[in-house]
Amino acid sequence: TREFNYVDNIVDGFIAAANIENVPDSVVNLGSGEEITIRDLVQMIHQKTESKSSLEIGALPNRPTEIWRMSSEAEIAKENFGWSPNIKFEEGLERTIAWYRSYLKAFYEKDSILHKL
Prior knowledge:
Blueprint: E1 2-3, H1 7-18, E2 35-36, H2 38-48, H3 75-81, H4 89-108, H5 113-116
């Protein structure tokens, strides 16, 4: 599993941290609190992009140094900054896919501003 956090959430956390007087004397995580399996992530991207590609999840052997779980605890940020993520994983993924689609459209269309540079 991995824990993903949309960039706007992280920026909001940095701003919240910059606006407090008593900075905690410890590591502060800006976690989403939502672990996602890589399998679920791949399947969600596949579905949301309407991909016609074939998924071969598990086709490669496990790596001996694989980190199986990565997540963070955001309680210090919540308690000290009043911060918590506003954008949930699925909405962030949809925004990210929309950004990539607009980028590809701007990059590949002849009449786009990128082609006029």
